[in-house]
Amino acid sequence: MISTLDFSTNPRASILIIYTGGTLGMDYNEHGALVPCDFERIVARVPVLKELNINLSVTSFSPPIDSSNVNSKHWVQIGRLIEENYEKFDGFIVLHGTDTMAYSASALSFMLQGLNKPVIFTGAQLPIALPRSDGRENFVTALEIAADKREGVPIISEVCVFFNHLLLRGNRSKKVESRHFDAFESENYPVLAEAGIVIDYNFTALKAYKAANTLRFFPELSNDIVVLKLFPGINEKTVAHILSVPNLRGLVMESYGSGNVPHQPWFLNLLESAVNKGVVVLNVSQCNGGNVIQGKYESSSALNKLGVISGRDLTTEAATTKMMHAFGSYNSIDEIRDCLIHSISGEMN
Q1: Hey, which residues are catalytic here?
Q2: What is the CA radius of gyration of the chain?
Q3: What is the pLDDT of residue 154?
Q4: I want to staple 34 with a disulfide (CB 3.0 to 4.6 A). Which of 26, 98, 142, 292 is the partner?
């Protein structure tokens, strides 16, 4: 159900808010404990919403969820809401917990192709009920950005994360902080906008608005994948066990530095065996910045020969959700590999 809050008779924009839960939407219950609250309580905590000259409509997950419980079904639910209401609104705000926000924003960037409107994820490190909550500014500024236009068209036409004054491309974002307000960063792609006294847009980094775009929703996702994070001393038994998971279709391998892996024969033999069985292996770096360059060093030179795909500068969050999208949307290995190699929505250089 969608509830409408018509704050203006001549609004500059109409925005749909999808409230999933998370820290932002917590308030005190009758026992003094912080618990997820209804969206009406959030509005009461942010009275300035009525002064933005933006008409808001709201739909909420019932009950609100902790972002650590988010799964692919929730991504489909968010994507479907946007698809079904795409022509009715100028933009969309997703209020979401921070722990998996980068995963959700990445997933939606692959599921919602041909976007010509803003889809902005935001949340908070402190609940909206607390005096020092960062949730108010994050929420209000995200709404301002979603409503902004230039020459009659939206400035933002992609999936983003807005947090602590910074607008980031969603599939380039990563949560890096749990104690401070600067929770997200985008090491491999420039900041899209910075909010100070004015909102300063980095127009050269923004996805260009294309009038001919038509929204295409890709709801099918496959979770028959696994993430393998390498560490010094990882043993053959562990890797063999991971690669023998029933119905395994894809492996996101977090390697060292610029794509380096152990050069022991047992490790390379296990990868080769997995690839020969049809498992798609995508190599991403454990480093927040930089990218995978297979063959730069001897320890990664064998990966190209084995058929391991270089994830270049993909984040783990983007690599994981892109692989889920690829397996859900395509059938042949060639189509899946082609999907992973090429950029869909600005997730890789």
Answers
A1: 23
A2: 21
A3: 97
A4: 26
Q: pLDDT tens digits for 207-217?
A: 999 999 999 99
Query: Which H/E stretch holds residue 18?
Result: strand 13-21
d(CA 217, CA 119): 14
**Strand ranges across the sheet with 309-310:** 225-229, 250-255, 280-285, 309-310
> Strand runs (DSSP E) across 71-204, as ranges?
91-95, 112-113, 119-122, 149-150, 153-154, 159-163, 166-169, 174-175, 184-185, 193-195, 199-201
* Cβ–Cβ < 8 Å for 19, 39: yes
If you count them, how many residues does the chain have?
349
Report strand pairing: 250-255 vs 225-229: parallel
Q: Are 168 and 184 in contact (CB under 8 A)?
A: yes
C-alpha–C-alpha distance, residues 123 and 61, integer Å: 15
- Confidence (pLDDT) at 77: 98
> What per-residue confidence (pLDDT) applies to 300?
77
Tokens found for residue 282: 């995508």
Instruction: With a cut of 50, list the residues of the chain below it in pLDDT.
Output: none
- Residue ranges matching CATH 3.40.50.40 in the chain: 225-341
**What fold does the segment set 225-341 form as a domain?**
Rossmann fold (3.40.50)
Give residue 251's pLDDT.
Answer: 98
Query: Which tokens belong to 251?
Result: 């492996």
pLDDT at 206: 98
pLDDT of res. 22: 86
Token pair belonging to 208: 């260009």
How confident is the model at residue 170, as a pLDDT? 98
| Chosen CATH of 3-217 out of 3.60.40.10, 2.60.40.3450, 3.40.630.90, 3.40.50.1170 | 3.40.50.1170
Residue 310 Cα distances to 109, 211, 252, 276, 341, angstroms:
20, 33, 10, 17, 8
* pLDDT at site 129: 80
Q: Would you state the pLDDT for residue 90?
A: 97
Which stretch of DSSP H or E encloses residue 285?
strand 280-285
What residues does CATH 3.40.50.1170 cover in the chain? Answer: 3-217
